[in-house]
Amino acid sequence: MRRERAVVDPMVVWRVIGDVLDPFTRSIPMRISYNNKEVTNGCELKPSQVVVQPRVDIGGDDFRTFYTLVMVDPDAPSPSDPSLREYLHWLVTDIPATTGAGFGQEVVCYESPRPTAGIHRFVFVLYRQLGRQTVYAPRWRQNFRARDFAELYNLGSPVAALYFNCQRESGSGGRRM
């Protein structure tokens, strides 16, 4: 008798589901890449690779449907003391289906990840909007809550999510002789 290996979801293993999101069913394809390096759940990217905002391509089949994208760091300032959880790195609304984040309305500009301690998870969450709507930038980036944001704007459960891991690059910031 052959044993089937259980499929382990990296979003569950790395507690993205739990810390940031409730369980959800992905219903829209979303592709994210930094300089042609595609983001896959749990991949490792260096801060030097994520300086410039990524390309985000969103699927769907109805161009009259709009999406909201948030990017958060649930490990700020460090995984052992995430007192600033979830730090908001990017917020884009009104992204038409079948396009990308560049076609949306940037509400909070992209801030590149610069973790100083430990391995940080950077989570992209995509929500389907009920229609075009005005979204206000939060007063500050720290202690943003994707769940509360989705509830405030009636976004419902996520339709897609991806995350990558990032940590400080060794040898950066030292003095030269």
Task: Draw up the topology in text.
Blueprint: H1 10-13, H2 16-19, E1 30-34, E2 37-38, E3 43-44, E4 55-58, E5 66-73, E6 87-96, E7 105-108, E8 120-128, H3 146-152, E9 160-166
Parallel strand pairs: 3-9
Antiparallel strand pairs: 1-2, 1-4, 5-6, 5-8, 6-7, 8-9
Taken as a percent bin, the fraction of beta residues is 25-35%
Distance between the termini: 64 Å
- CATH homologous superfamily title of the domain at 59-168: PEBP-like
- CATH-defined topology of the domain at 59-168: Phosphatidylethanolamine-binding Protein
CATH class of the domain at 59-168: Alpha Beta
Strand order in space, largest sheet: 3-9-8-5-6-7
User: What is the level-2 CATH architecture name of the domain at 59-168?
Assistant: Alpha-Beta Complex
Helix percent band:
under 10%
Radius of gyration: 17 Å
Secondary-structure element string: HHEEEEEEEEHE
User: Averaged pLDDT, please?
Assistant: 92
Helices and strands: which structural class?
mainly beta
Number of E-type strands:
9
Number of helices: 3
> What is the general shape?
globular
The largest sheet, given as strand count, sense and whether it forms a barrel, is: 6 strands, mixed
In the predicted model, the low-confidence regions spanning at least 5 consecutive residues are: 172-177
